[in-house]
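Subject: Sanity check before I submit

Could someone independently write out the structure tokens for this chain? I want to compare against mine line by line before I put it in a report. The sequence has 390 residues.
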Amino acid sequence: MAAGIRRILPAGPRGQGALLDQARQAGRVSAVEVALGRAPVATIYRIVPLDEAATPGVASAEGGGEEDAVAGSGDRDVDAASIADVADDALRAGAAAYGAGDLAGSERAFLGALGSPSDAVRAWAGLGLGIVLEGQGRRDEAEQALLRAASADVPRPRAMALGRLGALWSSQGRLDDAEGAYRAALDSRETIAPGVRYNFANLLKRRGDLPEAAGHYREAIDAGDAEVLVPALLNLGGTLAAMGDDDGAAAAYERVVALRDPWWSPRAMLNLGNVHARAGRWQEAVDAYSKAADSGHGDVVPEALHLMGGIFLRKGDPADAEDVFLRAREASPSFDPGATAGHTLALARLGRRREAEALAAELRAAGHGESADDVLQAVELLAATRPPRA
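---
Independent answer below. Compare away.
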């Protein structure tokens, strides 16, 4: 399926996603059905996955996202307060050097602390060294250092190391190992950072265990950690939507919207619109898309307008569809085949065949010949049902 038709209706943030490709390959919907707004609602209004982007200190740790960063355990890097409780000068020096950005000095200090006769000092040193090495991209060495801490009979650094190993192994696709590490960390009697639950929930969602994932997202949310709250709410919304709980998904997205976060709230509003649209609540969906478009967020505005235009086409309101697809074209930083295709269909619905064919020619000239062919099929069908406009 060509990109132009694909983006008349929902796609992921930044124009990613291939929902109509997927629908067509599954034999659920034809290009013309999509173009005419007759495709099944559940096929079109998907929920955009939002756990693909890393947030400060809490990366998704799932490969294939916008950033394949390794998530930390959720603890504040080297936990200086916990290490300070251990009366060891080398540990304190390692934590201080790390806090000052002196990674080489921190590494030397933690390596020295590994020679301590104290099990506790060695465990904390292994954890600190693993974090330092991980931050430098030296994952194999980091894994060995974290394994050293995780195998020690010192509960706090052991639990923290297990959480980090879970994130590391998840990023490498070692999902069974990652799940085991996360479960061991969460089964300990130690207070586990919300980031561990968040990352574990991402892993469970990735493996298709949606009910358990939702439970861990909720626990991460209830912990109130500012770094975890928004991504956990967004992912909870997506998980509940995938489970068919649109009301629960809407509630999660509404909490993010209420936070007025300049980056995530417009995206949450976009997904809130998708939830309403999937449930056939067209006016609520239009209201949500309109607010997302009014946010001025460059990544969200064209997407929200595409979605709104699709609803107007579906409802038989081509005049409003023409308006929003034109706005989407104007909001896009470069030639937008999806908005152009949508605009073409709206003009065809209005009986303005010559203008529609001219836009289809623009699509073809821009290298989107398959999209132009699909749109022209719809134009022909529409022309057969009404006389052309003079």
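---
OP: Matches mine. For the report I'm noting this point. The two ends are 33 Å apart (CA to CA).
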